[in-house]
What does this fold into?
Amino acid sequence: KQCLKEQEQQGEFRPNAAITREEAADAIARATQAAGIENTLTLEEGEEYLSRFPDTFLCGIPYRLALAYNVQQGFLKGDEAGRLNPQGQLTRAEAVTVLSRMLEKTGWLIK
It folds into this structure.
C-alpha cells in the first residue's frame, strides 16, 4: 500500500497501463515481503539465477534482484525459448499463473 501511495505521489502510478514482466516481478517480491516471506538472495546469487536466461541483460537494474527472486521462488519461469522477456508485457494468463504461484507459496491459496 505504501509503495502504491509513493508511486501515485510521484506521478508514476498508472493503474490502466500495461505492466512489464520485470515490474510484475517487483510487485510480487514486495507483496511476498509484506506477507512475511523475506527475500534473502544476495546480488551475486540473484545474478546466478538470472544467468540461466539469455535475455536478462535487458532487465533494468532496479528490477534485477526482484526478477531473480521470482525465478528462485518459481513464480516466473522462462518461455518455450528459455527467455524471461523482462521488458515484455505480462499477459493476463501469465498474471494469473504468477499470482496463483505466489498465493500458494504464502499459504493464502490452497489447491
